[in-house]
Amino acid sequence: MSLPIREGRDLLTPRPLFVERSVNPHAQGSAHLKMGRTEILATVSLEDRFAPHMRGKKEGWLTAEYAMLPRATSDRQPRERNLQNGRRHEIQRLMGRALRSCVDLRHFRGQTVYVDCDVLVADGGTRVASILAGYAALHDFSDRLILSGRLAEWPLTQAVGAISVGLVGTELRVDLDYAEDKVARADLNVVATETGQLIEVQGGAEGAPISVGEYMQLVELGVSAVQSLMTDFQRQL
Coil, strand, or helix at residue 93? Predict the structure, then answer.
């Protein structure tokens, strides 16, 4: 089997990453992110209502929603109107856990922070790109709250990023595009902080199992790649 060829990058280099903040004039925070050919639009909304399970708590809540537009892929996909879509729910839960880890929700008692991510163009890595776009939109949201005087203290507690890593043949690769993801023996989505602390790992082997050593290599590679990625990413914010 011939392995997918990377365009202008080595096996351990992520795709070019570009982010622009404040792209939606109506949202309280927003960002447009490009990661290679994958594009995400993220918005943040703050509403004066809260989840029932947060009653009596001293903090607010953050929830995330994810959707893929009909022509985000090479074939038109129907709009995801089915609320029971398993893949979408899995991605939303991952995004929510990742983004809640970086927000001090005590600033939003009795309120809910909504992070909405829409995939404009998909070429692999849409869930990790959505986490990055969501973090960028939260950064924009936080700036606006501070500048408007609605908050006196910065609500983000740490910088959070994510990256995909995989085994393609015998090769360890960082930030898989769609062609690589299709043939990977294993692929993981690694969520971590800029200081190298692990938040979550999602994924596993495709078909035949991999060794514990290979799995740990992928995790360590992912954490290191997130740290490297966040250096440039933070500069763009």
Answer: helix
Question: Any known ligand binding at 125?
Answer: yes
H or E element at residue 179: helix 178-183
56 annotated binding-site participant: no
Alpha carbon of residue 101 to chain centroid: 13
Rounded to whole angstroms, the Cα distance separating 27 from 40 reads 15
38 is in an annotated binding site: no
Q: What is the pLDDT of residues 163-222, one digit of tens each?
A: 999 999 999 999 999 999 999 999 999 999 999 999 999 999 998 999 999 999 999 999
**CA dist., res. 44 & res. 137, Å (int):** 6
End-to-end CA distance of the chain: 41
Non-local (6+) Cβ contacts of 232 within 8 A are 17
Q: Is 126 annotated as a binding residue?
A: yes
Q: Report the alpha-carbon angle 64-175-165, nearest 5.
A: 90
104 contacts 155 by C-beta, under 8 angstroms? yes
The full DSSP string for 108-171 is GTT-EEEEEEEEEE-SS-HHHHHHHHHHHHHHHHHHHHHHHTS-SS--B-S-EEEEEEEEETTE
Tell me the domains of the chain and their CATH numbers. 17-236 (3.30.230.70)
The reported pTM is 0.94
DSSP state letter for 55: T
Spatial distance between the Cα atoms of 126 and 121, rounded to a whole number of angstroms: 9
